[in-house]
Write a structure and sequence with these properties.
single chain, 177 residues, alpha/beta, TIM Barrel, 3-stranded parallel beta sheet, globular
Amino acid sequence: MKYGVFVAPFGQLSDPHKLVDLAATAEESGWDGVFLWDHVLRPESNEILDTWVALGVMAAATTKVRLGPMVTPVPRLRPIKLAREILTVDLMSDGRMTVGVGSGTDSGGELSRFDEIVDGRARGARLEEGLDVIARLLEGETLAHVGEHFRVDGVSLEPRPAQQPRPPIWCAARRTA
């Protein structure tokens, strides 16, 4: 069994130096992973760091602990942007990246207040298609994809991730009704 810490990079932890210290301390204390919530808006705080930038900084400050988001809402992101973020953190961490993904939630209005898709089924469809695109790009495929939500015209992703064929992807789900 492995043990990880997951924290919200907002409020008191919206200082990137605190997150770096937390990751280093977790590593020194024997934790197996440090994972960050991935939100853009929260009702309890407007002080929010970008999860992916923070993960990159944490990767540079640690050597053993696994890192990743818990969870990144794929439907609100462009697949190529997320694939590049995953690739970059995987390389910066020398293959210690674990990608937690989900469809997202509108807690605090972080979808509706930015005119993002709120409907759960629509987000689920975008999650499924987006993950397929992301996984195929990370696995080195030159991708030609025309789907309901995304189009990719002959794109490959380089450099290759440290983990082959790609970093592990964990999918989260929760019942909301």
